[in-house]
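Item description
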Amino acid sequence: MFIQTESTPNPATLMFLPGQTVLETGTADFASVESAVTSPLARRVFSAGGVTGVFLGRDFVTVTKEEALDWSHVKPAILGAIMEHFQSGEPAIEGIQESDHADQDGPDSEIITQIKELLDTRVRPAVANDGGDITFRGFDRGIVYLHMKGACAGCPSSTLTLKMGIENLLRHYIPEVVEVRAVAA
C-alpha cells in the first residue's frame, strides 16, 4: 500500500491519501482521542502521538499536529497507523454516521435549502481538495453560520475563504444572505 501526502493551506495539517475510499458518504471530524470512540482509524492516528485532530473525507485523512512538532517527526508514525488500519479490514467509522449539515426548520426553510445546495455543489468539493470541509450550522436574520473542519479549522486563509469566497457566492445567488460567520461545532 502506498499512501500519498499533500500539504494544505494550514501548515499544521497534512492530507493523507491512501488510494482507496475512507468514508462512503459525508465526513467525520475528531478533535481528540476521546471524541474518536466510533472510529478505529482516528484512534489509530491519535495513538501515533503529537496529533491534535483527525478529519476523514471520502478518499483522504487530514491530520493536524501539535504546533511545536515538526512533520518529519510525526509523519512516519501517522503513515504507519493509516496503513495498519487499512490492512486490518476494520471500518473507518463504526455504526451510523450522522448528517453533516445542521437541521433548521422555520420560515426560511427554502433559503436554507438553497444555502445547503450551494455549499454541497460549489463550496465543499473545493475545500475537500485542501483536506477540509465546511458545513451549515444555521441561518438567522441574513447571517449564515458555518462550521469549518479539517484543514479549514485554524487555517490562516480561512477568514479570507469565508468572507471573500463563500460570503460573496451566497450573496450572489441568495439576496437574503448578508453575512457569513464561522462558529464552533
